[in-house]
Amino acid sequence: MSGNFESKLAEMGVTLPNAPAPAANYVPFVQVGDLVFVSGQISQNDDGFITGKLGDDMSVEDGAKAAQTCAISLLAQVKAACGGDLDRLVRVVKLSGFVNSTQDFTQQPQVINGASDFLGEALGAAGQHARAAVSSPSLPLGVAVEIEGIFQVK
Predict the structure, then answer these.
(1) 98: which of 35, 37, 43, 65 is 20 to 30 A away, CA to CA?
(2) With contact defined as beta carbons under 8 Å apart, do 132 and 95 qualify?
């Protein structure tokens, strides 16, 4: 089903992929009341995993692009949780972003802005959210970014 949010995404040149399958023993999302808790989505695109370590072999700009791919996967999971109707999304409540970075790297917020800015542009006021952006010495499969989210749906 295509609605307002997906029309805006299409204007931005973004088509949501099928929701990524879990990589281990967990479910991709859990709905409790009107909240959907989406498991961490790792940076990946059509070419595969986006790997790298911020502060070493990856720029802040490339990290922000990796974070945007996580946001796209988060929306794909929300769409799946809503039976294919992304317009059931009321708002993004909170994101928790993890950045694979060196010990002295301090620009985690700028990296996770790649997801936050994307969601704000795509969803307008519904994309405004609370957030955490933290460093991690490593992430699964060597990916650059992982982001989990909480979403309100109707």
Answers:
(1) 35
(2) yes
Note whether 110 and 146 are within 8 A (CB).
no
- Which residue's entry shows tokens 């989406």? 38
Specify the CATH architecture of the domain 4-15+30-153: 2-Layer Sandwich (3.30)
Q: What is the pLDDT of residues 51-84, one digit of tens each?
A: 999 999 999 999 999 999 999 999 999 999 999 9
Confidence grade of residue 149 (pLDDT, cut at 50, 70, 90):
very high
Render 44-112 in DSSP notation, one character per residue.
Answer: EETTEE-B--BTTTB-HHHHHHHHHHHHHHHHHHHHHHTTT-GGGEEEEEEEEEEEEB-TT---HHHHH
